[in-house]
Amino acid sequence: MGKKDKGGGGGGGNQRNQSCYLQVLGLGCDTLDTLPSVLLFFDNERYLFNIGEGFQKFSLENRIKAARIDGIFLTRTTTEAAGGLPGTLLTLADKIHGDHDKRSGADAGPGSNKKPAAGGTADGRSFLSVFGPKGMKDFTNCLRTYINIRDIRLGVKEIGEGDAPVAASGASLREKESAAGAGARYHTLVKNEAVEISSVVLEVEDSDLQPGKRPRLEEEACLSRRNNSVDKQVAVSVYMIDLCDIPGKFLPHKAMELGVPKGPAFGKLCRGESVMNTFGKYVAPGEVMEPSIPGPTAIILDLPTVDHLRCLESKGVVEKYAKEQRDKEGKRLVMVHLSPLEVLRSEEFTSFLGRWPAGTGHVMVHHNGSEKQSIFSSAVRLQTELHELFPEFFPRHQNAGRDSASAGADLGGLGEQAIDGTNLLKYHLRPMSRYGPDESETMEGKQQGLEKEKDDAVTTTADGAEEKKQNLVANVIRRHEVEKPSCVSEASAGDLEVTFCGSGAAVPSKYRNLSGIYCQLSESGGILLDSGEGVCGQLTRRYGKARFDEVLANLKVVWVSHIHADHHSGLPSLLRMRSKVAKDPLVIVGPRQLRRVLSTYSKIEYIPIEFIDCSQTTEGKALPALLSDRLEQLGIASLRSVEVNHSCYNAFGVVLEGKSGWKLSFSGDTRPHEAFIKAAAGSTIFIHEATFENGLLEEALAKKHSLTKEAIESGAKAGAYRTILTHFSQRYPKVPVVDESFSTTTCVAFDLMTFNLKTIEHLPKVVPEVAARYEIEPMNP
Ligand SMILES: [Zn+2]
């Protein structure tokens, strides 16, 4: 590769991109389910390294405009690095459709000067480039099975096709010399006047496993709990970001000394062209300029295992860059480390760090980092406020429970150059006067007395709340009693516990994650209804890291309502994480299109599942033995899917009946639907989507969703003991409008809201209290 030496170049790029920094987006730093992202910011260009689950929610919270990103680079093509890509693409696609609608509308305004989404093209269609190592094509093929990404014009590049893998462990040492001799293959991905981004692919060939083959299930069971053999096979891209050199200052007196006449010739020299002097000789720009300042280099390094480190070592990358740094005066280099703590703690890693020249910066954004707070601070604030009001329904936000105290200490041996890459840490690369880390936007930085932003999240209006609440209770919410079922009056707390992992529709908001309802059944395990992006993170926030592993291991069934991405895009990541803690395949009951999604995905990662089509579980069908068996273990007497009326084929609702007499029904996405209401008759817990508020019938009909009042009516028709509304459009980030359609059996779902058969009786009292306290906030910007 080798960066183009601009010498006396005019540096037009510098004019446009005077400032440049890296910023740590600490996704997963709290829950460890995803890799952090790193944003590379220029005045006119944005690049993103990794896009894990929760990226959209994080962007809303931190005002990062996903639509302005020009390229995405993945260090791995697994969900850890790319879990947020499907959701982000969907949002981009929606935006583009929206813009098309506006443009074609009669009252379309004048042409917008705004930059089109994701590096848009002249015809208004977008163009987003995504780069990743081996598996990239399989990953996008998987996306194509459920996302219409035609309009985004996604450019996908699989880096390192044809690169030979390096054998693992001992073999790699033997081959080290020859491989080092051959040198690494640098793939140039972006090259413009400001920056060159290139990549080296690390691929470890595991001699324990036959190349290209995943272990069979029985073999899998023998593997270690952390299942390192699978991680070892992951191909990884290392990214090198080389900023262009800054040309030295033009020295007019030197030019005149050399006989260059004032005027256009000076301009030519400044632009990097040689000119002829008055004596007929050529004068080169280098002769009349101060020496140029070498542009800094940043390296994004994700090493899942020590074998990947060995692979990197064998390619001579360190030597190349270390030499460059020693040879060029003023050359700066910073490495951003995304590797897990196991690798950072290894002796080999310490010696690796030791070989870099003094002055090299190391930012440790390690997976097991030391974040003490959630990265979604608005959601945590709301959760904390709700906890104060109703501790029985809103448990305190769990820290991930990592050894945060020791994490910093563990890195003590890495020397002074290693700094903690906390969430939102910036590392300035340009201008050189600002070069280095900048904590002003991190939590710590903000708390250190820097100007604190007005907290727009907290709009609790304690003043008059009591009065408003009384008014809602007395005059608005209808009185409606349903006799308490015996399963409730005789319940013990451990019978059935329900947690909402997400209660939002389509796109996450600051307060509402995507669909997911986790039902824990005493000690025997649980069943998950829908599995939208971020479900693992939410379960970790609910149960803490240690119990999360237990929950995953004991998860018996995931039921998915329909093929829309917000209902299943968290599934691959859940399966990946579960395969590390459980031996049995997970039973997935879902719409038939989901089988294809998962089978395409299984080319990338080992995800042991048994798939059952929802239509095999409708009324009158004999349930597959495996499913009956799992339900039996959970104490569930019956699971029935009911086809509902939504904007895609094979959309279902579900009705579960517990052996202890409870009945829980969940509508999935649907217009009000008689067959579902009939099947759900007498439900103890009736969960229904309520995407739109009551005035928006046209939208509800077009998109085949339900209005608040329709969901409440459906519950009343089913004679439900409690009706819980969920799947709210992001128009209502906190509370939907409470009006006369609400009754005393109506409840509203919030993220991480939890209840059991004992506490469900009092769940409706949350509605007036919360509605009286929170203003309706405007839509997400
Ligand atoms: Zn849907």
Question: What does this 3D model show about the protein?
Answer:
The chain is of the alpha/beta class. It folds into 3 domains: 12-102 and 117-248 and 291-368 and 403-447, Ribonuclease Z/Hydroxyacylglutathione hydrolase-like (Metallo-beta-lactamase, Chain A), CATH 3.60.15.10; 252-288, no CATH class; 465-773, Metallo-beta-lactamase, Chain A. It is built from 27 helices and 32 strands. The strands form 6 sheets. It has an 8-stranded mixed sheet, with helices on one face. Strands 8-9-11-14-15-16-17 form a 7-stranded mixed sheet. Strands 25-24-23-22-21-20-32 form a 7-stranded mixed sheet, with helices on both faces. Strand 8 and strand 9 (195-202) form a beta hairpin. Helix 18 packs across helix 27 and helix 20 (535-553) packs parallel to helix 21. The longest helix has 20 residues, at 85-104. It is elongated and about 105 Å long. It starts with 11 loop residues before the first helix and ends in an 8-residue tail after the last helix. Residues 1-14, 101-119, 166-181, 208-228, 400-409 and 449-459 have low confidence and may be disordered. Bound molecules: zinc ion. Residues 562, 564, 646, 669 line the site of zinc ion (ZN). Zinc ion binds next to loops. Its cofactor is Zn(2+). It is an enzyme of class 3 (hydrolase).
